[in-house]
Amino acid sequence: MRNILSIIMFCSMTIFAQEAMPAGAELIEKMSDIMTQENSTAIMTQTITTSSGKQRTFEFEMFTANEGEKTLMRYLKPSAARGQAFLMLNNADDIWTYFPRTKRVRKLSSSSKNQKVQGSDFSFEDMGSGDSWKEEYVSTNLGTEKYNDTDCWKLESIGIPEQNPSYPKMAVFMRKSDFYPIKIDYFDDDYYIEKTLFMENIKEIEGVPTAIKMTMKNHSEGTETIMVTISITYHWEPPENFFTERELKK
Amino acid sequence: MIRKTFLLLLPIILFSQSNFFGYYEGEFDQLKFANQTYNYGYNKLRLDFEANPDDVVTIGANINIQKYFDNISWNLLDFLPSEIWQPIFQPDGYPEEMWIMEFPIALLDTLSLDNVYLKAGFKHFDLMVGKQQISLGTGYAWNPTDIFNTKQLLDPTYEQTGVNAVRAEISLKGRTNLDAILSPGKDWNESVKMLQLKTRLGRFDMQGTIGQYTWQRTQFNSTTFMVDEQNNLRTLYGGSVVGELAGAGVWIEGAWNQLENQEDFTEVAIGTDYTFKNSLYIIMEYLRNENGVSSKDNLDINNYLQYFMGETHSLMQDYLFGFLSYPVNDFIQLSLLGFGNLNDNSAALNPQISWNLFQDVDLIIMYNHFLGEDNTEFGVQDWGWRIRLRGYF
Questions:
Q1: Quick one: closest CA in A to B168, which residue?
Q2: Res. B112: pLDDT tops 80
Q3: Chain A nearest CA to B99, separation (Å)
């Protein structure tokens, strides 16, 4: 009888331990579920600060669909960037840009997807890759760690070279409570931390945890970009033919 | 005319959600050629207006006010090799006092309504009526399918002048669009009629174009010394493909032009671009234009006049364009632009600095160095500077 109880207790502990220590793939799946909603539309500001302290502020509207697979960004401010727009499809593998001054649309090659968007510390891929990191990285749960007094899972994601990931490695701190990431380190080819993204002021918007402020610090260049969400809704249905060149030029 | 248009637009401006924006642009140029240095420049104000009387309707207009300073009168003959103009203006056997020494051209101050249009968006198509900028094609420096514009080689991304037209962009199945353009002329033959079918196959954007209009080309009459126009019904069959190979952007844009009173010609631009991980951006483009002249020995004054008037995309047949840019930091960019005429072996090199001085204020400083013999397209000039300040509002 005692043996049977021991076996039951052992099995329970094993199951508990498995629940308490979810696999990296499971965590990435849960994080993706919460981070990439089916559709969304938002107005955001983007403040770039250079190493010398100079600042530029942009305002843009952003539309996403199909869990971030499709993204359309259009700059509203300042005047110099007004009307400039980007259409990113297939998780930013295909990028088109529209120049309102010349009314021209140009397709950017995929070699530019890791380049800065409007000089910010966010790349096209950071903005438009959706949930592609589920396929592009192998993730391992490194265990529990506290970050800013918050209990987090620490996740290490190593890029799969054949999938052509933007970064060879990422380290994610995600809240245990809801799997929402609050800090992501992006590594360069030499495995040094190139950039860090901080997700702050996380609020429930339409039942979805949403970081109102996102700060990307570029450690190699000493620059920083802060994105603040002015308004956002996940209850948006894109009209037919929305993610096309026609809409890009509007 | 502008006053009348604005009076008509006034109710819309007052009673709808309207926006005013635009920019100031000041430019100073110094150019050395024909053993002389010339200074010139301009101050320009572009004032844009946009209103939305309805959710799906946009009314837009812009006025350009441009005032030139310093050298505003030029002698066109200074820009031409002497063997082109001397036989006409200073022919052998004519007494020297009868020689014509100059062909004056002037930079005229402008106050123009550059664009004024109404755009309506429907479920399956957008309709745009009025004077509007129409930029066709995928090439960076040259667009063989663009019959409305000729780009400035030193500044290929500068905005183009508006064209009177009705344009409908119709969404067909999937990612296929049909673009129909009608730009009215004095009669049906003179009007530009154009259809463009755009679609996407795999990772490639494709476009097929057919267009017809009367091509008006400048002809110099060496008897009357007047400039006439030569009309030719032109039918253009063109297309383009844009995509990528091994991470590099690639494109080809071409057109076969069937002419009523002249030999048909083909024009093709082929290019590639690549962005390196350190943000160095490189672009190369080659143009083959059979409408150009194959050898400098065959050039005449009409070839130059037609090129200066923007009636042809190039003076000669084969050109190479290259552009390198590198962001030093978030606000300063270094670039090197170059283009070469492969037929007369002349070239221009144009290093430049673009500096975002303040929010909405850009400064561009560029130097132009021209290479080649004196009787070549670019070699006729020596060097030049350009400083351009632009402030958006």
A1: A246
A2: yes
A3: 44
Q: Is the pLDDT of residue A16 over 60?
A: no
The interface pTM score, or ipTM, of the predicted complex is 0.88
CATH 2.40.160 in chain B is located at 122-327
Q: What is the pLDDT of residues B48-91, one digit of tens each?
A: 999 999 989 999 999 999 999 998 898 888 888 888 888 888 87
Residue B3 has a pLDDT of 59
Q: In the numeric block, which tokens belong to residue B214?
A: 């009367």
Between chains, do B359 and A103 touch, taking CB under 8 Å as contact? no
Is 0.95 surpassed by the pTM of this model? no
Residue B315, pLDDT > 90, answer: yes
Name every chain A residue with its beta carbon within 8 A of the beta carbon of B177: 244-246
Domain boundaries, chain A: 21-248
Model pLDDT, residue B7: 59
Q: How far apart are CA A196 and CA A187, in angstroms?
A: 9
CATH level 2 (architecture), domain A21-248: Clam (2.50)
Q: What's chain A look like in SS3?
A: CHHHHHHHHHHHHHHHHHHHCCCHHHHHHHHHHHHCCCCEEEEEEEEEECCCCCEEEEEEEEEEECCCCEEEEEEEECCCCCCCEEEEECCCCEEEEEECCCCEEEEECHHHCCCECCCCCCEHHHHHCCCCHHHHEEEEEEEEEEECCEEEEEEEEEECHHHCCCCCEEEEEEECCCCCEEEEEEECCCCCEEEEEEEEEEEEECCEEEEEEEEEEECCCCEEEEEEEEEEECCCCCCCCCCCHHHHCC
Q: Which fold has domain B122-327?
A: Porin (2.40.160)
**Secondary structure element (H or E) that encloses residue B307, with its range:** helix B301-308
Give the mutation candidate from A77, A104, A226 for the B interface (greatest B CB count, under 10 A). Answer: A104
